[in-house]
Amino acid sequence: MSRLELDRLAIVRDASEKRLRRQDAAEMLSLSYRQLQRLITAYRQHGPSALAHGNRGKPSSNRIDDNVRVRALSLIRRLYPDFGPSLAHEKLLEKHQLSVSLETLRQWMISDGLWVPHAQRQPRVYQPRQRRDCLGELVQIDGSHHDWFEGRSPKCCLLVFIDDATGRLMNLRFSETESAFDYMMATRAYIERRGKPTAFYSDRHSIFHASNKNAIESKYPTQYGRVLKDLHIELICANSSQAKGRVERANKTLQDRLLKEMRLQGISNIEDANEWLPYFIADFNKRFAKAAKFPKDMHRKVQQTAEELDDIFSWQEVRKLSGSLTFQYDKVLYLIEDTEENTRLVRENVLVLDYPDGRIAVKYGERKLTFRTFDKLEKVDQGQVVDNKRLGNVLRFAQQKQEELEKAEKRERSKSGPKRRAQRRELTRLQNINPVLMDTKTK
């Protein structure tokens, strides 16, 4: 009997044995006098069991047939063993026309051991990890998306580089998005000022880790991975945010302190913030950085020249030259200079270098090739089409495609190429320094 029925039994027994007035007992049970009389009569005839619900222990008249349950569980066990209740419910309905409620199926799977509720699962244990021994041995990196300027400017991303051994901020950089070009520019600024660390520790963002199997098996899974490979810096990707807890906790601290400091300084845009960040980094490290276990600095000197670093920190893609020494990149047609030496490169692969400041270079081996460009998204000069005998047919074809795109209103750059926001910001910065730098295309 239930607790409620046991309490009712005590009152009915007292009323039956006249230890309690029936009128009072009816009020206590919220029953009518006649209903209480029926309960007393049943108690005297059949004992306490008469007060239990009559359907207790009997199968429900509205129950689902046992054959349906057996079929559903057998299908799940055979075809959907790792499916959750919601997905299994969808598949049973779509593919097998088995219509049962989601909650009923969930309870069946729980009782049959096919599903463990989240509340009953053992929590994952994250063992604390000791700090690294030396400065520069491991640097954790992450992007923190936040309303950094409190509505004074659009939301943006802060790229954070923090040393694991000391908790020192090694570099900070604001960017519109968390893109490969932004990480390239932030990393270059870091290694030019500090040197090359032993390893970077990041999450599994697509900038650092490629989920595509073919990309993983390739020599360089991602553009940023290729940059670190060329610099002999190890890239380690964490499987959880808890594993790189130092940078995650630093993000929370920065979202509190840095945001308020910029408010006091009257900083309201990315450009001013990036210029001021070195002062904040110095103050932050003075307050929170710890001494490393060993005093040795694991940063290595950068051996590459500035020109070599330019090539390393570029977006690189391979293109194959056509029979007329042309190739296409980002909807721009590149025409390699027709020299005796270059004619041997027909059908050969060349490397396209797309620099963060918008410049383009083409390399074959260690030699950079001279080229001309024809942008299909710009207007075509008919005079050039007539005068240039070698490129006439190519340009006419491009003009035709241009008109088709113009009508279809699809005049935009390739979506498979790199994000250009970092390039536009860098180009604006360079033009502010030197207004003569208007044409960024290398010819």
TrEMBL record:
Residues 402-443 are annotated as: Disordered. Residues 124-305 form the Integrase catalytic domain. PROSITE patterns: INTEGRASE. Gene3D superfamilies: Ribonuclease H-like superfamily/Ribonuclease H (3.30.420.10). Residues 402-415 have a biased composition (Basic and acidic residues). It comes from the Bacteria. InterPro entries: Homeodomain-like_sf, Integrase_cat-core, ISNCY_transpos, RNaseH-like_sf, RNaseH_sf. Coiled coil: none annotated. It holds the Pfam family HTH_29. PANTHER family: INTEGRASE PROTEIN, TRANSPOSASE RV3428C-RELATED. NCBIfam families: transpos_ISNCY_2 (NF033594). This is ISNCY family transposase.
